[in-house]
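Appendix B. Chain record.
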Amino acid sequence: MADTAQMNDQKSDPNVLVRVDNLHMHFPIYKGIFRRQVGAVKAVDGLTFDIRRGETLGLVGESGCGKSTAGRAILRLYDPTSGHVHINGKDIAELSRTELRKIRPQMQMIFQDPQASLNPRMTVGSIVSEPLDEHGIVSGKEKKARVGELLDAVGLNPSFVNRYPHEFSGGQRQRIGIARALALNPEFIVCDEPIAALDVSIQAQVVNLLEDLQSKLGLTYLFISHDLSMVRHIADRVAVMYLGKIMELTSVENLFKTPKHPYTKALLSAVPVPDPKIEAKRERIILEGDVPNPANPPKGCVFSTRCPIAETKCFEDAPKWRDLGKDQYVACHLAG
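Structure tokens predicted for this chain:
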């Protein structure tokens, strides 16, 4: 997807912590008595991008575009169908289970639904200390002190260690999930829509907490979301995803000021503006039709069937990944 020059730049850049190269995650479709494979759902279909040390890369797109699957494949929670994921120079897609376990502390995940991701039968202390037990890092008084330190870091009282998840609000449960993700001192965290299940009044608090932790601990985030207004607040760069592919990748400033891809423009037109006068005059781009079946994506550009400016070549040839300058990349024949 990316040109050779861009990939070479990424390989030689010491500031790049995570490099994803042509990542595919296809789920097989089986039919019949003998369970023969008749196709595959192409949830992630050739992603290539990099995440620099200490930055937050936002990954946005509508529901079902493959964002969460991409995040899990990058961390090897799913074994990728093909492609490479380099973290700190190591290709984790090629590692054995034993080797992967050794570097697992470097990369963690914050899940979308804190109620579903926390074991209701475990106390808060057990949940937060579970990674420490699993990797045998500390024990006894040191472990107890570490758990208290982690709870304090996410704004929870260390005396809550003996309570259970159902005794907390949604925002507090997500803070417990964040504390668990921080237990092994990771460098890279995938935040899989960490605020989507929370009340609007709590969302800003959790995002501010993530920013504070990033500043203090030097963390690098992949922030997955469908909320562009929140991504604008937290991200440094944004990748726009559609049907398993990245349509546009650029800085937050470029994305909101000069979006290039028709799909990006359509997404931005759906974001409400707090000024009633501007909102009343603003032109919305309404996309017709539904997202195509990822088991049978369109020929050519995957967005061509819904694109308001598509031409004949868009339906026939897949667009190349182009550098438009000013750190703005786009996969579109007509963008410029």
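Further analysis of this model is presented in Appendix C.
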